[in-house]
Amino acid sequence: MVRIRVVLPQHLRTLARVEGEVTLDVEGPVTQRSVLDALEARYPVLRGTVRDHVTLKRRAFVRFFACEQDLSHEPPDARLPDAVATGAEPLLIVGAMAGG
Prior knowledge:
The chain is α+β, with helices and mostly antiparallel strands. Helices cover 22% and strands 23% of the residues.
């Protein structure tokens, strides 16, 4: 088991009633799926906010970043960068902006 750091957007921190970044214990390979599984297990109120309840696909206006890379379109079971897996760098979950 490894400890992962995750930074949530303000509205999800408010919903989960947390301040700053959260730390999660992740079992097995550190992937988007395993991190989101751990996030939703620890903060059940976040289920359905980052990914769809049924399909488990990332919501359209949610993006994932780590180590200055946009990981939003990576497969959910692709391993996250080593810096995230070791806790040196956080996984950033960002609410994208839309407008017109």
